């Protein structure tokens, strides 16, 4: 959520970023609503002051009838104005929540096709196996029974593939712990306030990805980023505490409503999967450096697995509402002979912190909003796709990546 004062002082910049991100929002209209809010607030404050003045005159004796009558009128008028103020404040907040974060200067403009490659690592493999056919033939993956139990795009992992998923988690966890992250398990559901505070505002209702709990103010999480964002909600941290680094492990639930036309085969895009997520709360002046740190950790993880990849600076039109800048890591798929997304990391500046009211008290006593960042360590379902595509051997066995052997009892193949 952007500060309305910032919007006023940077209207042209906010309008440009909103347009470049693909959001059709009338930003000046939001400011007009806020002007109306200010007018009503001034009327409410004036009535409250007059009410207190009248109440003061009525003390110490029998009040005059005209004062009693004026007090009654003020009470009725104030009730109406406060109701109007509450209504317009809700309206203003609803509009402000739809305005996305401002992009950094080095974010490419345009749609998804305008994202820019910034680095590349590894040698691209020329051949690989289809993960779905391979895992199904080994008896490791069962979409058919998953659909019977929960519906399309749900699945069972079995035997060695389930153990391989656990090995990937343990490997990813070892890497983030090396870099000073605190490991956390998190709630699998969040309230609407946290959901909105994270800034997961779809460009259209058809793109809404969350599963909501009927009759409850709760939604299933699409990523551990959501409960981690809310962890310090309504708190004031001390400057000495920052930066704070958390690694959250959780299942993730997604409708994948906006996935039409994207690669969806097998485990690549499913309704439920497990993920290890990195998250940081930091001072504003630290966030750009920490963004690069999170990207470096992601690269270390995939270099350790010896998977070729490239990193792209995501174009504005493909950024979500909260991110000011985002990197995607895409692995080389030897099956599809193209790069496909495996991880991402975003700098959300103070956009989420403002909505969730997470602040920092500086050493000089001043208080301001922190910056928040997030990055995927290991998205386990997609990680399995990557390993199967790259490590299946002739004859049907699966070679175990060197870094995973300690977590699979030293096995060299499955």
Could you characterize what this model shows?
- The protein is α+β, with helices and mostly antiparallel strands and 414 residues long.
- The chain folds into 2 domains: 4-96, Helix Hairpins (Orthogonal Bundle), CATH 1.10.287; 112-408, BirA Bifunctional Protein, domain 2, CATH 3.30.930.10.
- It is built from 12 helices and 15 strands.
- The chain has helices spanning 4-9, 11-20, 27-57, 65-96, 131-137, 143-150, 159-178, 192-197, 225-230, 287-304, 351-356, 380-391, and strands spanning 116-121, 141-142, 156-157, 182-185, 189-190, 219-220, 235-238, 244-253, 272-282, 309-313, 325-333, 338-347, 358-361, 367-369, 371-379.
- The chain has an 8-stranded mixed β-sheet with strand order 1-10-11-12-15-9-8-4. A 3-stranded mixed β-sheet has the order 7-13-14.
- It starts with a helix and ends in a 23-residue tail after the last helix.
Main traits of this protein?
BirA Bifunctional Protein, domain 2, 3-stranded mixed sheet, alpha+beta, 8-stranded mixed sheet, 12 helices, 414 residues
Short description:
The chain is elongated, with a radius of gyration of 26 Å.
Spatial extent as radius of gyration: 26 Å
**Class by helix and strand content?**
alpha+beta
Parts with pLDDT < 50 across at least 5 consecutive residues:
none
Nearest-integer average pLDDT:
92
Measured by DSSP, the beta-strand proportion falls in 15-25%
- CATH class value of the largest domain: Alpha Beta
Q: Which bin fits the share of residues in helices?
A: 25-40%
**Strand order in the largest sheet:** 1-10-11-12-15-9-8-4
The major β-sheet equals:
8 strands, mixed
Second CATH tier, the architecture of the largest domain: 2-Layer Sandwich
**N-to-C SSE string, H for helix and E for strand:** HHHHEHEHEHEEHEHEEEHEEEHEEEH
Looking at this structure, what is the CATH superfamily of the largest domain?
Answer: Bira Bifunctional Protein, Domain 2
């Amino acid at each position: 959520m952007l500060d309305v004062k910032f919007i006023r002082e940077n209207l042209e910049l906010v309008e440009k970023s909103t347009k470049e991100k693909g959001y059709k929002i009338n930003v000046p209209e939001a400011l007009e609503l806020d002007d109306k809010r200010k007018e009503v607030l001034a009327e409410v404050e004036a009535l409250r002051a007059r009410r207190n003045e009248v109440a003061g005159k009525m003390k110490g004796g029998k009040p005059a009838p005209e004062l009693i009558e004026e007090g009654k009128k003020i009470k009725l008028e104030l009730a109406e104005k406060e109701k109007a103020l509450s209504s317009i404040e809700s309206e203003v907040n609803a509009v402000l929540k739809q305005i996305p974060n401002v992009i950094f200067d080095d974010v490419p403009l345009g749609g998804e096709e305008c994202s820019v490659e910034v680095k590349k690592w590894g040698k691209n493999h020329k051949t690989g196996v289809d993960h779905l056919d391979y895992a199904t033939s080994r008896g490791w993956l069962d979409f058919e029974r998953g659909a019977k139990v929960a519906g399309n795009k749900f699945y069972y992992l079995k035997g060695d593939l389930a153990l391989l998923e656990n090995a990937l988690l343990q490997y990813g966890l070892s890497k983030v712990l090396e870099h000073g992250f605190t490991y956390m398990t998190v709630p699998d559901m969040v309230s609407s306030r946290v959901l909105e505070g994270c800034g997961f505002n779809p460009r259209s209702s058809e793109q809404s990805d969350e599963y909501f709990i009927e009759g409850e103010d709760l939604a299933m999480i699409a990523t551990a980023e959501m409960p981690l964002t809310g962890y310090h909600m309504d708190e004031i941290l001390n400057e000495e505490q920052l930066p704070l680094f958390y690694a959250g492990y959780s299942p993730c639930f997604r409708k994948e409503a906006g996935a039409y036309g994207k690669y969806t085969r097998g485990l690549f895009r499913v309704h439920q999967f497990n993920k290890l997520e990195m998250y940081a709360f930091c001072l504003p002046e630290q966030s750009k450096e920490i963004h690069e740190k999170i990207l470096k950790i992601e690269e270390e993880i995939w270099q350790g697995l010896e998977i070729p990849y490239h990193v792209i600076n995501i174009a504005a039109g493909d950024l979500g509402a909260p991110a000011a800048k985002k990197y995607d890591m895409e692995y080389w798929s030897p099956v599809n002979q193209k790069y496909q997304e495996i991880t991402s990391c975003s700098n959300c500046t103070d956009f989420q912190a403002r909505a969730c009211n997470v602040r920092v008290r500086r050493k000089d006593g001043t208080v301001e909003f922190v910056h928040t960042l997030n990055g995927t360590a290991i998205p386990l379902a997609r990680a399995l796709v990557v390993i199967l595509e790259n490590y299946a051997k002739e004859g049907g066995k699966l070679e175990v990546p060197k870094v995973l052997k300690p977590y699979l009892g030293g096995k060299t193949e499955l």
